[in-house]
């Protein structure tokens, strides 16, 4: 949804039904996601007959990690990676190092790429399409 809004909001606010049609996602599901994005200040709602949604910041200012953590939650591979989790096996666990390294790697990748990068990839995919 954020990629779609970022690609199309230069022409004005983007309507959910248009995103749903382009992306093949239900309007109901997108309404749930846009509520989360609006509440967090990631998108702004524009009311009226020409209304819809616009990005609140420039695409370069969002990381994939910011968006995904907001909409999907924590990406920790196991609960032990969360700071607030007290594992009774903590002192004897031989795999915690593996899980923590995996958690760090996941978050590094998610935070490495911006919405601007993703929009660029999407645009490039369309530019490379040939029949």
What's the gist of this structure?
The protein is mainly α. It has six helices and two strands. 51% of the residues lie in helices and 6% in strands.
Please, could you describe this protein's structure?
The mean pLDDT is 92. This protein has a two-stranded antiparallel sheet with strand order 1-2. It is elongated and about 60 Å long. With 131 residues, the protein is mostly helical. Strand 1 and strand 2 form a beta hairpin.
Defining traits:
mainly alpha; two-stranded antiparallel sheet; 6 helices
What's the helix and strand layout?
Elements: H1 2-8, H2 16-23, H3 27-39, E1 43-46, E2 52-55, H4 64-72, H5 96-112, H6 115-127
Antiparallel strand pairs: 1-2
Order of helices and strands: HHHEEHHH
Q: What percent of residues adopt helix (DSSP H or I)?
A: 40-55%
Which overall shape is indicated by the principal axes computed on the Cα atoms? elongated
Strand content: 5-15%
Count all strands and give the number.
2
CA radius of gyration = 18 Å
Strand order of the largest sheet: 1-2
Structural class: mainly alpha
Major sheet summary line:
2 strands, antiparallel
Number of helices: 6
Average pLDDT, rounded to a whole number, is 92
In whole angstroms, the N-to-C terminal distance is 27 Å
Regions with little confidence, pLDDT below 50 for 5+ residues = none
